[in-house]
Request: fold
Amino acid sequence: MGSIGNGDMGAVAPPPQQRQQQTRRLPDFLLTVNLKYVKLGYHYLVTHLLTLLLIPIMVVIVLEVSQMNPEDARQLWEHLQFNLVSVLACCAFLVFGCTLYIMTRPRPVYLVDHACYTPPSHLKVTFPRFMEHSRLSGNFDESALEFQGKILERSGLGEETYLPEALHLLPARPSMAAAREEAEQVMFGALEKLFANTSLKPKDIGILVVNCSLFNPTPSLSAMIINKYKLRGNIKSFNLGGMGCSAGVIALDLAKDLLQVHRNTYAVVVSMENITQNWYFGNRKSMLIPNCLFRVGGAAILLSNRSSDQRRSKYRLVHVVRTHRGSDDNAFRCVYQEQDDTGRVGVSLSKDLMAIAGGALKTNITTLGPLVLPFSEQLLFFATLVANKVFNAKVKPYIPDFKLAFEHFCIHAGGRAVIDELEKNLQLLPIHVEASRMTLHRWGNTSSSSIWYELSYIEAKGRMRKGHRLWQIAFGSGFKCNSAVWQALRTVKPSSGNPWEDCIHKYPI
Reply:
């Protein structure tokens, strides 16, 4: 959880004479400006290589056609008449190929809109209130209280995150009824916003996918939504449980696959977590960390495969890439719900969590990279790989520049350390992780819905332009790393009820 140190603290200043020589020396523009434009030119050349090769061919064809006289045109027509069977066969093959392509190509999946839940202000929890409540509860010893205080200070959370009603009481009352009430407030609050912004009638929903990792009552959460809004009887409904903070992308992938099968359909995905019955009341430090990070939140997303919805939709789903490391025992147990020595239930976080997350991310981007990176980046990566593996050249491995593939990044706001590591390993700029850091500060770790609060932040800042590409990255128990790639269909303005609308002027901080 600790922050990364500053490597410049130990730098030694050069002697005065050397400093004087440096001030007199002109900047080495060959290593700055020229190389910059050489790299830009290389990327442009390789990325548009096919187009650049086709231009001369098209020029030659146009020149040949422009030199044809009527006699040449008549001879060409006669030649085609004498080869009528061949012409018809080619036309039939072309029509068949086009029809087959249209019938088998994946149906585009559009994100019409999404909405995030904003809890009432009386559920806000400041650091002093959190610590006072923990002390007065009598469940934690001094060591556990001191540990929670340190985690809060380093967490990256702010003073305006939310906890459910039952945990504001003394003593806390984590009952089944209170957990259901929290689930209803989050799900219905997000859905009401979504219905209002999209004018969607609940009866029009053909697919419903709900994900919540730690609260799975009977009837299910999806059944609660169906009962509340009286959804139609033939709806395809699914309830995903126990899949951690990356379950939002899994739910998205499931909805995408269903939209490939069912034509002209709306799919609603609801991503949330439930805290009421999953608060840890013991003293094991590895199980106290979730108390300090997880907060109330949820999101509802409307997807469509209707061609008529393209104009009003915000984004088109481009790729979903899922990675599961569950076959490795350490990865499987790094986020693990269990009982402590006193029988209290909680979620334990392993010290190896960051290393395991890094391995899952590496596997995920190895699959995602060829799908999204410019060919120029792939060529450089392949060249350094061949140089090292085949020729033993000991060249430093080339790290692909994902900033060339995406304009925006939504990294799961699991904690400050997670964001720090991805910013460092992917060589991102502060603005690329701003949405993740600010979401962690304002809302805390809202589990699978955090990537949607981050997207709302980008929209509220007015940064999303037509054609921009977005990468959502989520990590979860199991251990999983999942990615979703979107492309903006238009310049996106924040929808009514954007969760940042009353505080966006305060950020970034």
